[in-house]
Structures are given as C-alpha cells and as structure tokens.
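Hi everyone,

Forwarding the result from last night's run.
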Amino acid sequence: MGAVYYWASSENGDRIDDPSEDALFMLIDDLDDADNTFVVIQPDQDDPAWFASVAVLDDGGYEVVRRDTTRREHDVDTATDIGRIARDLTTWMAAREYNGQPSTPAPSKTRPSRARKVPSE
C-alpha cells in the first residue's frame, strides 16, 4: 500500500485516507444537521500547512473553507451542489504541498528560444 498523503474525517468518525472525488462526495452527502455536521480534509502530518472543511449550514447548503498558510489563502464559500464541492476540493488539494514537496511539478519559467539565425557577412 502507498503512503497516505491526506485524509478526510467526518464528525461521526468516518475516515478515508487519500479520498477520491467520489469518496468526498459520499462523506459530504452523509452529513446532517444533528450529529454529523462537518468533514475535515488535511495532510497526514504534524502541524499541517493546509486544510479544507465542509460544514452543514442551518438554512441548507454547505460552508466550504479552504486554508493554506504557505500560500496565505483563506477562502470561505457557500454551496449547495455536492458534486461541485467534491470536484472543486479535489482540484484544490491537487495543488497543495505534501511533506514540503509540491504535489504537482511547478510550471517551467523558461521559454523556448526564438533566436533567428542571422546570415554572416
């Protein structure tokens, strides 16, 4: 089995290591306004630099929080579409760092040379 990079855990104790978009959908869909009101997603490490959470709102829908201290990001949104929430969180997490390493390669800052060959005189 591979390393656990991050996990998702709900208030009722359900936990999934490295959850897929479908697994996040199921955890969020299982939330209620009584005793399972939130899901937290974070890296499997001490003092994680980022986390995301989804919580049931009293008037319906969900509050989605994304926090990444290394990028100085802290976003709070509300949403009703569980599929979109799971997809957006999966995309957001794919851009996070795990154990100090970027999860995806950084884009190259160099551009191909467009030098023209100048005829010698």
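Helices lie at 21-29, 82-94.

Cheers,
N.
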